[in-house]
Amino acid sequence: MKIKISVTIPFIILFYSISLYAGEAEIIAAYNNGDYTKVIQESKSEEAKNGNAVVQGLLGTMYYTGKGVPIDYAQALIWFRKSAEQGNATAQNFLGLIYLEGKGVSTDYTQSLFWFRKATDQGFASAQCNLGMMYGNGYGVTQNYTEEVRLCRLAADQGSVDAQKYLATMYLLGNGIDKNYKEAEKWSRLVAEKGDAEAQFWLGSLYDMGKGVGQDYKEALKWYQLSADQGFAQSQYDVGLMYDLGHGVPQDYKEAEKWYLLSASQGVASAQGGLGKLYAVGHGLSKNLVIAHMWLNISAANSTNSKEQSEFAEWRESVAKFLNAQQIAEAQELAKKCTANQFKGCL
Question: Which DSSP symbol is given to 1?
Fold first, then answer.
């Protein structure tokens, strides 16, 4: 899995600290308050008078993101270039992204590398990891995972959440480097503690499996729950599974059903199969073989894991032995409707 870091933190924080002209401070305040009409009116006058790099970059950001104006990558390029040529690291990083993504211009890895390096030379965190990922993907350079890790770690050590998360994925999945669950735990935790639902899921999984940390179901459930409460579908399934199995919590099939259903409605096949099994056996629920067949049929069709597909299909066929032809037809029709409704309102 490759994740490209984008600029997501507030614009003014991304610019290096400089003394502000009175007009510039007013423009930035208007931007932060969402008064984009005023920004456009005031910034063009301020830029014309002073050739102000921060204001130029701010205009570029507005055209790039569509804040207050229609998205216009050609205009964004003009303003970012004006700012970047004055040494503004944020604008340099944006130019690198524009050439990398081919927005308003042809994709040009040479230009992308040039501008990422300019910003990296100033210690700009987002550019450091973006440059690192150019090495990791071999875009315009010889592929070099060691350099990718080195550069992204520079950004992560500055507190870049995006870089920390990217490093966590590299160590979790072994993207070009050996898997290292202790490092994965370290970087996942930093991001998870800031409230990132996906990183909370990763951390929960590490405790669940005992990788990089001692196996601890209660700690796993804690992180799964934090993630699930934010609507993260895979964590919702894992919370359901913990209640289903009684891992880290007293066994509670009603709670398992609740969390399985939330996850299943977002298309998670494992949760759909889990519901099917609960209804097939009747654990804590009213046994309902038609509904069980429906969920098992859906999960077998929806899963991308061949082992899981086979398991759910076997369960479905076992359930079918206790149904007559009319009940099987009903279950199949319910499965079709549920799938057509994108797994919403299936019970």
Answer: -
* Calpha distance 148→132 (Å, rounded): 4
Q: Report how far residue 288's alpha carbon sits from residue 136's, in angstroms, rounded to the nearest whole number.
A: 51
- C-alpha angle 338/326/280, rounded to 5°? 60
pTM equals 0.84
Instruction: Kindly list the distances between the CA atom of residue 172 and the CA atoms of 78, 154, 177, 197, 202, in Å, as whole numbers in the listed order.
Output: 40, 19, 10, 16, 9
Q: CA 97, CA 99: separation in Å to the nearest integer?
A: 5
Looking at domain 231-347, its CATH class is mainly alpha
What is the spatial distance between Cα 313 and Cα 43, in angstroms, rounded to a whole number?
Answer: 63
- Separation in Å, CA 49 to CA 23, 42, 43, 89, 124: 10, 11, 10, 22, 28
In the chain, domain spans: 231-347
Residue in the block written with tokens 């994965």:
184
**How confident is the model over 46-59, as pLDDT tens digits?**
665 578 888 888 88
User: How would you label 119-152 residue by residue, b for 16+ Cβ within 10 Å and e otherwise?
Assistant: bbeeebbbbbbbbbbbbbbebbeeebbebbbebb
